[in-house]
Amino acid sequence: MNQRRPTSGLAAASSETLIHSHNRVGAPFFRGGGTQRRALSASKIDSSADVRTNQRLLRGVALLFALVLLSTSVRAEVHPVGEIRQAAEQFLIQELGVTDSEKDVSIEIGQLDNRLRLAPCTDGLEARFPPGGRRDGNTAVHIQCAGPVTWQLYVPATVERYAQVLVANRTLPRQHTLSAGDLRFQRIETSRHAGSYHEEKDALIGQQTRRSIRPGQIIGTQHVSPREIISRGQRVTILAESGSIAIRMQGEALENGTLGERIRVKNASSGRVVEGEIQASGHIRVAL
Known about the structure:
By secondary structure, the protein is of the alpha+beta class. The protein has 2 helices and 14 strands. Helices cover 31% and strands 30% of the residues. The model is unreliable at 1-32 (pLDDT under 50).
């Protein structure tokens, strides 16, 4: 019996040692397991956050792409303003007969509001002058869509025309008969000139000034008149013709007159007053 006690004590000691050893080894194991579980949970949280972030990024990219497509679609459904201005310019070029080498005509198309949102006109643009529209100076072109939609607008434009016109070379007194030396050419913008003008010297040479004209002044039809070749009281030849029969008689002019004008004359022999047309020869032609 006494020999078994040590064995029991050793067994007890061994058992106690095993228990303590188990506790020392086991405690860290269970503590380590809790840390791993917390790490796994944190990892799962981080992964979920990354997924949500990626989803938000994908949604943002998709939204941006949709906006780009929408913007492109909106632009595609609006007729370009530049094409409208070009249509107005081409109309004026054709209507006014302007060539590429033309230097005496300048066409400027006004600006349109870039915020215009006009539906595409696939059937072509129609252009014309508005009722009462000017062909020179400040004007406008009426542009209308032929289809499939209907819209219209006015495009502002400026047409400047230039020409070499005749002006006075020096001071010209009233009732002066014009000669070639009295005239010279000057280039002006005729589209802004309200009065008349001449481009050929032959149209003015021999004409008589109605009033005094200053140097450089444009000579229009209102400044001159045909030269009077018959004066009142002047002795004239009255010519009466009918076929091969011609009768001439002397007379007196009762009024002033120019070439081609009809004036009254008095027959010097009979005293009869008749009316006739002034000829280039200075004769007065009357009906027989």
